[in-house]
């Protein structure tokens, strides 16, 4: 392991090897692609880290140059496993951190997340707030993107490649670049520009396999419970510890899923330190329920008003039960790994998460909203900002849903939302 130190506002000092530093440095190494081991980082103080995101620990020692190092992901893509349709190749535990097993035994919940290269920078703040085990599924197309994804050890990373873009080599090609280590998103942008026009065009034409990646991340968790999120969903601070204590006393005798409310946050403000600050920001119009303007039904059943009115208690507890479940509900939740998998026929955007939650509901799962914990998505979203290709993908996935809901009905012999009954009535009217 190379020598790592952290530069703080008042000078540099050796970073203690704590759980938090392990996870933060791992995620940061992903983002800065320390496969490029000749990278030199500009010395910038924490004061210069741009708001609204809170300053994170600088990532690596300034001007450290390491040579003669093997690629971090030293794997053979030819030996991965195929998905059921032979479309994507997966590699489980391609890189397992030295503390991942220990953390999985001491924490009740593993955070499972997935990402492509474009959003991998969000993993910095995720790891900064989550000190438990993390299973991260990374998607790469071809040799160029795979080379960017060569990372340092510490977390459990899984890999996925599309059939037509499986890397042909794992050779380590040294590259030198001058990156600002305190600005991972900008540094990542510089690295992404190294991709050829051919691979960029391929990525634009082909949808991202969200459900494949979710299943890949979740199934490589080792803890009893999984908190499955998207990489740009940032957990509130100390969420892992709070959930760990919650599950020491929570004994659900039924099929239970625990919803962590998700809010959108204005880019001009700092990440809220607690629920009180978040509610205050909501009152000022600087935060609001996730997808409230884009598609309100996405999170409506969570009942944010009731959550905001729940008496503030530091300990994680159940605020209320979801009593108005409706189709298209897509909460981010914590549950055991026995929940139904995400259906991999849904590729890209649309009907990816809500179909899995719908199957849970048909199977008899109950949803309980937790407080005072929460998650944040940066930026207040508006429908006009959505690209046209998302709607095209949504339309394609909608075609698969008719068959999916019939299969769910056949599997559980239940139709609580009368989804199949309504379809049969519509067919008779045609």
From TrEMBL:
Q: Which parts pass through the membrane?
A: 12-34
Q: Which reaction is this enzyme known to catalyze?
A: 3-O-[beta-D-Xyl-(1->4)-Rib-ol-P-Rib-ol-P-3-beta-D-GalNAc-(1->3)-beta-D-GlcNAc-(1->4)-(O-6-P-alpha-D-Man)]-Thr-[protein] + UDP-alpha-D-glucuronate = 3-O-[beta-D-GlcA-(1->3)-beta-D-Xyl-(1->4)-Rib-ol-P-Rib-ol-P-3-beta-D-GalNAc-(1->3)-beta-D-GlcNAc-(1->4)-(O-6-P-alpha-D-Man)]-Thr-[protein] + UDP + H(+)
Which InterPro entries has this protein been placed in?
A: B4GAT1
Q: Which cofactor does it need?
A: Mn(2+)
Which keywords, in A-to-Z order, does the entry hold?
A: Glycoprotein, Glycosyltransferase, Golgi apparatus, Manganese, Membrane, Metal-binding, Signal-anchor, Transferase, Transmembrane, Transmembrane helix
Pathway field: Protein modification; protein glycosylation
Q: Pfam families, per this entry?
A: Glyco_transf_49
Q: Does the keyword Nucleus apply?
A: no
Query: What is the protein's membrane topology class?
Result: Single-pass type II membrane protein
> Is Magnesium among the key words of this record?
no
GO terms classed as biological process: protein O-linked glycosylation via mannose
**Molecular function via GO:** glucuronosyltransferase activity; metal ion binding
Compartments in which it is found: Golgi apparatus membrane
What GO cellular-component annotations does this UniProt entry give?
Answer: Golgi membrane
* Family statement drawn from the similarity comment of this UniProt entry: Belongs to the glycosyltransferase 49 family.
Full protein name: Beta-1,4-glucuronyltransferase 1
The protein's organism comes out as Nesidiocoris tenuis
């Amino acid at each position: 392991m190379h020598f790592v130190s952290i530069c703080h506002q008042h000078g540099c000092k050796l970073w203690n090897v704590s759980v938090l530093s392990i996870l933060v440095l791992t995620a940061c190494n992903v983002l800065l692609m320390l496969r490029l081991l000749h990278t030199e980082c500009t010395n910038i103080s924490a004061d210069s880290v741009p708001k609204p995101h809170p300053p994170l620990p600088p990532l690596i020692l300034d001007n450290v140059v390491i040579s003669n190092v093997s690629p971090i992901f030293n794997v053979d893509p030819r030996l991965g496993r195929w998905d059921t349709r032979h479309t994507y190749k997966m590699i489980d535990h391609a890189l397992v951190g030295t503390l991942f097993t220990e953390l999985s035994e001491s924490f009740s919940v593993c955070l499972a997340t997935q990402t492509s290269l474009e959003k991998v920078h969000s993993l910095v703040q995720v790891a900064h707030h989550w000190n438990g085990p993390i299973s991260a599924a990374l998607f790469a197309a071809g040799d160029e993107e795979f080379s960017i994804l060569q990372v340092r050890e510490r977390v459990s990373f899984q890999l996925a490649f599309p059939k037509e873009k499986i890397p042909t080599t794992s050779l380590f090609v040294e590259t030198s670049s001058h990156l600002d280590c305190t600005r991972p998103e900008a540094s990542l942008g510089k690295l992404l520009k190294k991709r050829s026009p051919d691979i960029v065009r391929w990525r634009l034409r082909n949808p991202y396999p969200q459900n494949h990646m979710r299943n890949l991340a979740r199934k490589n968790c080792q803890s009893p419970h999984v908190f499955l999120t998207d990489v740009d969903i940032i957990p509130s601070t100390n969420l892992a510890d709070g959930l760990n204590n919650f599950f020491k006393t929570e004994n659900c005798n039924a099929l239970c899923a625990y919803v962590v409310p998700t809010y959108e946050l204005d880019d001009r403000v700092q990440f809220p330190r607690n629920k009180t600050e978040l509610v205050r920001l909501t009152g000022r119009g600087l935060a609001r329920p996730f997808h409230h303007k884009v598609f309100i039904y996405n999170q409506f059943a969570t009942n944010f008003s009731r959550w905001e009115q729940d008496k503030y208690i530091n300990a994680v507890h159940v605020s209320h039960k979801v009593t108005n479940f409706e189709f298209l509900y897509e909460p981010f939740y914590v549950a055991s790994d026995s929940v139904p998998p995400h259906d991999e026929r849904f590729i890209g955007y649309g009907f990816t998460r809500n179909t899995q939650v719908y199957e849970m509901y048909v199977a008899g799962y109950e949803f309980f909203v937790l407080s005072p914990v929460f998650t944040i998505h940066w930026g207040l979203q508006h429908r006009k900002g959505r690209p046209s290709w998302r709607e095209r993908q949504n339309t394609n996935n909608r075609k698969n849903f008719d068959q999916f809901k019939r299969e769910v009905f056949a599997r559980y012999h239940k139709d609580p939302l009368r989804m199949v009954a309504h379809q049969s009535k519509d067919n008779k009217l045609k």
